[in-house]
Specification:
By secondary structure, this protein is mainly α. Helix 2 packs across helix 4. The longest helix is centred in the last third of the chain and has 34 residues. The protein is elongated, with a radius of gyration of 27 Å.
Length: 312
């Protein structure tokens, strides 16, 4: 029994010495080279190494480094806005304490908004999705912020729609997300996915007003999908005969369309003789996602939860 107690005591002493040495090194270098504070984290080992060295006290070490990370960010936010080692710090923190939600959320916003590190932000958010419990009330933030990064910074609307669709499955997510998902799929020229998604959302919601709004959006997206199929049939007809068909009915008769598409909004499709494009007797709603980009976005511009506005 005494040997067991002694063994635990040695482990605690070793951990205290490890933490003391680590933070003494950081604080000493901070004091000696205050202008180049970021460089002091060059000596911080990886989270994987520290997990082995912390002797089971990973979360405690992670909490201490999380405090250090927040202080590091705050100090540079007020001075040079140079966050060279912030990504490394957050990776170490989330490796030592992978179930803690907020460092992922904090890093997902700050790394892209302040440091301009889009890929590091995406990597940290994906790490959060893998580790944090889906029962966490703020779990939906991870796919939400990922969708924002892919839409705003990478112009990848299909991937953005994929992540935003995941965010809508959590009860705490905003009610406007489903309509934005449909817009993203439409922008990615993938309206078929938006149709399936909206139909499922209409089935699952009990709020009649919300159901009506989703149904209106579904009609718009079905119309967009119809136009896409019609254009494909028109192009295929021209490729084979080197001329355009006289009507949409001719596309059906020659097998380039399985049936005459029906516009759920009440309009009628036709082929314009002036431009030889697919037109409709009813104007369509603009489903484009409008993003106003600013130079050098600051953290204050992105409150929690970050809002992606849509024009209705």
């Amino acid at each position: 029994m005494f040997c067991i107690v002694l063994s635990k005591f040695k482990r605690i002493i070793f951990l205290v010495l490890l933490l003391s040495t680590l933070f003494y090194l950081i604080e000493t270098l901070d004091a000696k080279y205050p202008v180049k504070e970021a460089e002091t984290f060059l000596y911080l080992p990886s989270g994987t190494f520290l997990r082995g060295a912390a002797l089971g006290y990973d979360e405690m070490l992670g909490d201490l480094l999380w405090i250090k990370a927040v202080g590091y960010f705050g100090g540079h936010a007020e001075t040079d806005r140079n966050y060279t080692w912030l990504s490394h710090l957050l990776d170490v923190v989330t490796t030592l304490d992978p179930l803690y939600q907020y460092p992922y959320e904090f890093g997902g916003i700050v790394l892209v908004a302040e440091a301009g590190e889009v890929d590091n932000s995406i990597a940290l958010l994906k790490k959060g999705m893998e580790n944090v419990s889906k029962d966490d009330p703020r779990y939906w933030y991870f796919p939400f912020f990922l969708a924002y990064n892919y839409m705003y910074h990478k112009n990848d609307y299909l991937t953005a729609a994929h992540y935003l669709e995941q965010a809508t499955k959590f009860p705490k997510s905003p009610s406007y997300l489903p309509r934005l998902v449909a817009r993203l799929y439409a922008n990615a020229d993938f309206p078929e996915a938006a149709v399936d998604f909206l139909q499922e959302m209409i089935k699952s919601t009990k709020n009649q007003a919300f159901k009506n709004r989703l149904t209106e959006r579904l009609d718009q997206v079905v119309h967009r999908a119809n136009k896409k199929r019609l254009k494909q049939g028109l192009d295929a007809f021209y490729l084979k005969f080197q001329r355009y068909p006289a009507s949409i009915g001719q596309l059906v008769a020659t097998g380039f369309l399985p049936r005459m598409p029906v516009d759920p909004r009440g309009g009628t499709y036709y082929i314009s003789r002036e431009s030889w494009t697919i037109e409709n007797t009813m104007p369509e709603e603009d489903l484009t996602v409008h993003i106003k980009k600013k130079e050098g976005p600051r953290t204050k511009d992105l409150p929690l939860p970050m809002r992606i506005s849509e024009e209705n």
